[in-house]
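User: Just a sanity check before I run the rest of the batch. Below are the structure tokens for the first item. I only need the designed sequence back.
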């Protein structure tokens, strides 16, 4: 699994709320669960939580999404279970 590529895809989804193949209501439910799970994994890491909040707040900003993807990849490399969740 290429954790960097997976993290980039999840960061984009978490920031923009876009989930292909689902209706709007279902997509927003998935995105909300993803965001909640990411917040839980980031825990007390204020920098990573801020990366998520900034990406959600400005979903058109590629730098903010990239910053979130880096944080996701960092956690995914250290936590095999979380990496698997990202891939799902």
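Assistant: Here's the designed sequence for the first item:
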């Amino acid at each position: 699994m290429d954790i960097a590529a997976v993290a980039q895809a999840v960061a984009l989804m978490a920031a923009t709320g876009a989930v292909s193949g689902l209706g709007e209501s279902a997509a927003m439910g998935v995105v909300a669960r993803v965001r909640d799970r990411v917040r839980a994994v980031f825990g007390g890491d204020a920098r990573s939580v801020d990366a998520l909040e900034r990406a959600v707040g400005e979903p058109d900003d590629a730098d903010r999404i990239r910053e979130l993807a880096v944080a996701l990849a960092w956690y995914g490399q250290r936590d095999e279970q979380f990496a698997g969740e990202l891939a799902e």
